[in-house]
Design a protein that fits this description.
Blueprint: H1 24-36, H2 59-76, H3 84-94, H4 109-120, H5 130-145, E1 149-159, E2 162-173, E3 177-187, H6 202-219, E4 226-233, H7 249-258, E5 266-274, E6 283-285, H8 291-303, E7 310-312, H9 322-326, E8 331-335, H10 358-376
Parallel strand pairs: 3-4, 3-5, 5-8, 6-7
Antiparallel strand pairs: 1-2, 2-4
Helix pairs in contact: 2-3, 4-6, 4-10, 6-10, 8-10
Bound molecules: zinc ion.
Residues 191, 204, 237, 347 line the site of zinc ion.
């Protein structure tokens, strides 16, 4: 009955005696291999018994195996039976279905896409607008539902258009090493385009936020070594042109607070996600980004089979990674600055749901999710 939908060797835990006499550790490895199917077949003897060489298969799978392990331990120890038929759907629904798919199935792109749809419903969300506040509330609600603690940083600044109230949302997931953390950021605000009421920033802004929210849902269940701060920046967009008082308000504020002498933990790297759901995904890590992080990210993409979608770019781009670099904190931005023919959808009514895709969001989200985990674990 374990075989249904799992590509497993036939396995009846009540008749199969191959785990009898095994240590708990061997037993656990054996069960893992049984569930993993053909990938680890060579680690199992022809009679089904354990012969070593188990391959670790990841935390999500381990979590799923708890259901099965608890059941099998009960049988092994002669305790009462529980209904395996009842627990099987729980396991089957979350087990990997395709043995050849790349590791990192933890990013639910469909769900993340719905977050983008939700964000764009408020219309423009430039700093200080009602749309911005609605999105802040949505981000906070989503983080709360994921069990991730967070706070809102609200402040006022003089801009070329007068005083504006800005709001960053900062979420934190603690790791076991309290000395350092990684910042993962995206901006939720949109460019203020008065002449373009249909502009909703589905890609420019919302896609990065959706990636962060989905990663928050994922990381909240993990045991991390390092801590991570997920930062939802306000005021990335400038009103006129980037200057000291125009643009990057949220990231400048966040980086300035990192220098607070009372702050004990060190930000050791910053990763920024922006414009990553274009139907024709063609993202870069621009020139000037930290070379170690950039090379590591490209390697992560290669491992997942996504190398065709990301490359190191030769142009420099101003974005929320810039204030980090200015303070000497290693930082990268992953951005697809080639949105529509000649970038025509950028800062226009073309930046809408119809011009982004779940597939692209899945590729960029999975790659950033894996990359962040590599930095944190
Ligand atoms: Zn923009």
């Amino acid at each position: 009955m374990f075989g249904i939908g799992l590509n497993l060797a036939p396995f009846d835990p009540e008749k199969d005696g191959s785990f009898k006499g095994a240590t708990d550790c061997e037993f656990r490895s054996f069960i893992k291999m049984k569930l993993r199917g053909k990938d680890t077949a060579e680690a199992v003897n022809s009679n089904g018994s354990f012969k070593g060489g188990a391959r670790m298969i990841g935390r999500q799978a381990e979590f799923e195996f708890k259901f099965i392990l608890n059941y099998l331990y009960r049988i092994r120890r002669g305790f009462g039976k529980i209904s395996l038929i009842l627990i099987c759907p729980l396991i089957l629904s979350s087990c990997p279905k395709n043995e050849d798919s790349p590791p990192s199935p933890e990013f639910d792109a469909e769900r993340a896409f719905q977050d983008i749809v939700r964000m764009t419903k408020t219309g423009q969300r430039h700093s200080g607008s009602g749309g911005a506040l609605e999105n802040v509330i949505f981000i906070e609600k989503t983080l709360s539902e994921a069990g991730v603690r967070h706070f809102r940083d609200t402040w006022e600044e003089n801009t070329p258009a007068g005083k504006i109230t800005f709001q960053n949302v900062i979420a934190r997931i603690d790791g076991s090493n309290s000395d350092s953390f990684v910042a993962l950021g995206a901006h939720y605000d949109t460019k203020k385009l008065d002449h373009c009421p249909d502009f909703t920033g589905a890609n420019d802004g919302a896609s990065g936020v959706a990636i962060l929210l989905e990663i928050a849902r994922n990381l909240s269940k993990k045991k991390l070594k390092k801590s991570v701060e997920l930062v939802f920046f306000d005021g990335e967009e400038c009103l006129y042109s980037y200057s000291e008082k125009d643009g990057l308000h949220g990231s400048k504020r966040y980086v300035k607070n990192l220098k607070d002498p009372g702050r004990k933990r060190r930000c050791e790297a910053a990763v920024i996600a922006d414009m990553l759901a274009d139907r024709k995904l063609n993202a870069i890590i621009p020139a000037g980004c930290d070379p170690f992080l950039a090379a590591k990210f490209i390697k992560t993409a290669e491992k997942l089979g996504f190398s065709g979608y990301f490359k190191q770019g030769s142009i420099q781009i101003t974005d929320d990674h810039s204030p980090f670099l200015k303070e000497g904190i290693p930082a990268v931005v992953i951005i697809d600055f080639d949105y529509g023919t000649n970038n025509l959808f950028w800062h226009s009514s073309g930046d809408k749901i119809e011009n982004i895709s779940v597939e692209s969001l899945s590729i960029s989200g999975k790659t950033i999710n894996s990359f962040i985990k590599e930095l944190l674990l």
